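Form 7-S
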Amino acid sequence: MARSRRNKGRPINGWLCLDKPEGMTSTAAVALVKRATKAAKVGHGGTLDPLATGVLPIAMGEATKTVAFVMDGEKQYRFTMKLGAATNTDDSEGEIIETSDVRPRTAEIEAALGDFVGEIEQVPPCFAAVKVAGERAYDIARRGETVELEARTVEVKDLTIVERPDDDHIVFDLTCGKGTYVRAIARDLGRQLGCFGHVSALRRMKVGAFEAEQAVSPETLERLIEDDAFPQVLRPLNDALAALPSLALTEPQAERLRAGQTIRVAPHMVKGPGVQGDGPGGSEDEDTTIRAMASGDVVALARLTGAELSPVRVFNLRVHPTSFRAIS
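Output:
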């Protein structure tokens, strides 16, 4: 006798810009959204520490195929550095391991910031999600064992002082690329200044196309679902792919691409980032990854070689349910 098929959840496709509250893990945030929306598949576009608040892009359905592009996006943070103490986690949740009575002047701090802008070498915090021999670094550190992490190159585009509310605290704005640890910047800046330091407050303001001004709190999400207004904050897959050039296809072309076929296109019709003049630039032997679009929706991520467009990842976009209210 055949087993009955298990209900796999709703076919919701798109992105939600969640305003993660302090104290919640990114995994718990994903579980909350999945539970509230009953979506079949949910993931996130870049971990936020429990201490941190702010933008946590949540991918749903076919949007999970675009997570890597969001994680590669530029990020903006506002963080507060507490001077005078280093902790084992490099934030206020850890144990104090070193202290100092030194309090550098604001001008001295500002003068040191240039060393933390551009491509810099950075050792991740011991309590980080990076893996060491297949195990998370924070799991090793929590056991009291020494964690040896190698320095990595990261890009900091901008680091500026916002305010200094008192001698012990200073607020910064940071714009950076993938893999940058804010906690490591506070740690290393404190060491360089001779005062020690750690992150006492952290808010992510932006990840790629997702900004704090459009983020919704868990409480707001619940109300939107109850009012059948959730589709108003569900963002299209295309928002995650804004950094890629695009090409508008005819419907017959789109159908062939969806079926896995390579099609012939006019390269000069490619538009957007990385496009030189009237076309994608480069020689006919070079490949360009583009967004293949039809009727305003992204059909596939595709590889353009000369005038040939081959599908790399096809999206199966379906109609959303008419009601998002909780189902008992």
